Amino acid sequence: MNKALNILINVLSEPSVLVALIALVGLLAQRKNLSDILKGTTKTFVGFLVISAGAGVLQQALAPFGDMFKAAFHVSGIVPNNEAIVALAVSKYGSSTALIMFFGMIVNLLIARFTRFKYIFLTGHITLYMSCMIAIILSVSGFTSVSLILFGALTVGIFMSLSPAVVQPFVRKLTGNDNVALGHSGAVGFAIGGLVGMAVKGKKDIVSTEEINFPKGLGFLRDSTVSIALTMAVFYIIVAIFAGPAYVESHLSNGKNYILFALLQAGMFSAGVFIILSGVRLVLAEIVPAFKGISTKIVPNSKPALDVPIVYTYAPNAVLIGFFSSFVGGIVSMLILVLSGGIVILPGVVPHFFTGAAAGVFGNTMGGVRGAILGAFVNGVLISFMPILLIPVLGDLGLANATFSDSDFGVVGLFLSGLNQMGGKMITMIGIGLVLLIMILVSLKKPKSSAQ
Amino acid sequence: MKILTVCGSGLGTSFMVEMNIKQLLNEMGVDGVEVDHSDLGSATPGSADVFFLARDIAEGGASLGDVVVLENIIDLEELRTKLTAVLQDKNLL
């Protein structure tokens, strides 16, 4: 008996197998045919292993970067990249991540069914990354087994329902209707972008970013493999030059030319992210449609919360302005951090692109060109300082040269770690419960009029 | 026939459009169309018969071949019209 239990625990604590089982259940529930079930389960299983493989490649690229940065500036430089940190965490926290994600999606369905937060969060990779961060932080706070999964799932479910609600007023204003919501981890940054836009719009009519003629041809930035490789190449080469050829060639590159070495490592970083993304794609391919299928059946009048590019088509110029402005915010923050001599957050091109663009779009909606520039700039500063506060709460992983990027990771992470510092596990549980209670109370107060 | 939906990171938007296309194909009762999603960097000419992508990456994807550009990626009616045209063109409808 004990042996059988041991084997079961062994199997279930292997994240790739666990995720495959979750996909299997989803596929069975949808009554797919045998070949689809077999295909979906296997893809999910292999997908998770691909993520771990990508982690290895990323680590190879990140380790020398950290060494060079320290040798050059005598401070540590950290790259905020969700893919990187999640992949590094998967070996240790993979099983709890998978279970928290699975039950978190159920909590999201329940909240949508019974409260006026009618958002079904369909951006699967964000759910995965958020579940991973929550698994890490709660584990570091001392949660284990059932309490870890339960409170982790509650937190993810609450995030999935609240995050779209935070930006919805701006989405409504932008799209002119209330049919669709935004499901992304940058919601707080987007909302602040919108608020900044309102604050700076002035008395005259708003001049929209879309009235400017912008040089096109920066579209290659949308291709993440290219943009990551190019920006990381700039960072790696600068750091290699400051660390000096003597240090790089004797300590890290085995005599290989230091610039060439920097270039190769930058390519390796991009390759690692590429591999991880393919893994994430394989894992989500079966789980998200199952979630969507279930939600349309049991939650009437729900709004799908979708990935951030849905707002880009409304204001393509604001997308570019927002990206640049956010990135400038990141560079300014980096310089401040370098001068203050602590940990340095490098502006990551992916988070600044995806969240800066949306902050720019909402800034533009509320306050025209000025709103787009300043709103996205504030987002850029926000996502540079928040990750620093996250590093101490991630335990061993805080030292991994990579961290979570977008604004909501900071908000959720600081909320959980703040509760833990106030009074450990007990206060954390009460705090999570309280948020849920408030959401339920808000729904009772206004029963039908605003639920639509 | 194979349709590939494409977006910047190949995770969110392209996946959503893929699910919408599958739903529409189901409603129309069209069989034998394979639909998949991908990031812009991995999509190559010839990897599908028709590519669906949003207006904001239309330029980056122009060289893929038979490209359908969506003005509004959440508009199911636009997708239905453009998908129908593609299916009629391929004699599947």
UniProtKB/TrEMBL annotation, chain A:
It is found in: Cell membrane. Keywords: Cell membrane, Membrane, Phosphotransferase system, Sugar transport, Transmembrane, Transmembrane helix, Transport. This is Ascorbate-specific PTS system EIIC component. GO terms for biological process: phosphoenolpyruvate-dependent sugar phosphotransferase system. GO terms for cellular component: plasma membrane. The keyword Hydrolase does not apply. The keyword Cytoplasm does not apply. Belongs to the UlaA family. It comes from the Bacteria. The phosphoenolpyruvate-dependent sugar phosphotransferase system (sugar PTS), a major carbohydrate active transport system, catalyzes the phosphorylation of incoming sugar substrates concomitantly with their translocation across the cell membrane. The enzyme II UlaABC PTS system is involved in ascorbate transport. The chain crosses the membrane at residues 6-29, 41-62, 93-112, 119-140, 146-167, 179-200, 226-248, 260-284, 319-350, 371-394, 426-444. The gene is ulaA. It holds the Pfam family EIIC-GAT. It is a multi-pass membrane protein. Homodimer.
UniProtKB/TrEMBL annotation, chain B:
InterPro entries: PTS_EIIB-like_sf, PTS_EIIB_2, PTS_EIIB_2/3. Keywords: Transferase. This is PTS sysytem, mannitol-specific enzyme II, B component. SUPFAM superfamilies: PTS system IIB component-like (SSF52794). The keyword Transferase applies. GO terms for biological process: phosphoenolpyruvate-dependent sugar phosphotransferase system. Residues 1-91 form the PTS EIIB type-2 domain. Pfam families: PTS_IIB. GO terms for molecular function: protein-N(PI)-phosphohistidine-sugar phosphotransferase activity. The keyword Protein biosynthesis does not apply.
